Automatic annotation (TrEMBL):
Belongs to the universal stress protein A family. It comes from the Bacteria. This is Universal stress protein. Residues 217-284 form the UspA domain.
Length: 285
């Protein structure tokens, strides 16, 4: 199967501090794919200042607050521009640019999702102490593009030698399984892992990965299928254990949830995995 190459990857640099850990993964990947790196930096919208009743704010005070906001945005914009330019120049073999935007009424996440739809792949850092803005799994739900989630404290520098596909037969899992193929090295291998939870309800039963593995293998890929009984507290933990056991350097899985509210409140495999990842995870919805 002739896959369209991933020629552009967008890095979520809304928090500029994410650049260094992201480049540990994005740098080698961009070189291998000959892909252009586009840093996306989204500033929050200016929301003004609510007056304290019964006193109204003077025009001069409002203008001062607005000027402070604009100065801060300009400062952060310059910082992320200089930081990305320095990283690209130091390497010499990477190309890229930065794009800046200001969030609209729906927030930073909505603006990032709109930007992401213009690129082949999104690379974003796990939400935590460094990425304090948009959770990448939420971006995966909204953007319609595959999102490669990089662990906050990643030791990964080169991925695609052994990819684990988390398989349950859903459309999200299918999307992830085929979206990840361009990231697999020519000499790399794939393990399709299906978790048997013991459920027999219609639509929720065990779906082995043998058929998917045979399909991918017909295209010349080194693929095997593996089934595991659920022995952990959650499917997410079982998948992480599987990845560790087989030595996978990347996981591909579907991002589940009809709305970000349901996903964040009720959790599931998506939430339990992104909270604990130790290797990059490609998520698709």
């Amino acid at each position: 199967m002739e896959e369209r190459p991933m020629t552009t990857m967008m890095l979520d640099l809304t928090c500029p501090e994410t650049l260094d850990p992201l480049m540990k993964v994005a740098g080698p990947l961009a070189k291998r794919l000959s892909a252009r790196i586009v840093g996306a930096h989204v500033s929050p919208a200016f929301e003004g200042v609510a007056p304290i009743e019964p006193f109204a704010l003077s025009d001069a005070y409002y203008d001062e607050i607005r000027a402070r906001y604009e100065a801060d945005v300009k400062k952060r914009t310059k910082q992320v521009d200089e930081k990305l330019s320095k990283v690209l120049a130091a390497d010499g073999s990477l190309t890229g640019n930065i794009t800046h935007a200001t969030a609209g009424p729906n927030g930073i996440g909505a603006k990032l999702a709109r930007l992401a739809r213009n690129y082949d792949l999104v690379v974003a850092l796990q939400k935590g102490k460094i990425n304090r803005a948009v959770a990448p799994e939420v971006l995966a739900l909204d953007a319609g593009r595959p999102v490669l989630v990089v662990p906050e404290h990643t030791s990964s520098t080169d991925i695609g030698s052994h990819v684990m596909i988390a398989w349950n037969g859903t459309r999200e899992a299918a999307r992830a399984a085929f979206d990840v193929l361009p990231l697999v090295k020519p000499e790399g291998r794939i393990t399709v892992v299906a978790i048997d939870t013991g459920q027999e309800d219609a639509g929720k039963g065990f779906v082995p990965g043998d058929t998917l593995a045979r399909t991918l293998a017909r295209d010349g890929l080194k693929v095997e299928a593996m089934s595991r009984k659920l022995s952990s507290k959650t499917i997410g933990n079982e998948l992480l254990n599987a990845a560790s056991d087989i030595g996978a350097d990347m996981i591909a899985m579907g991002a589940y949830g009809h709305t970000r509210w349901r996903e964040l409140v009720f959790g599931g495999a998506t939430r339990s995995i992104v909270d604990q990842i130790t290797v990059p995870v490609l998520m698709a919805h």
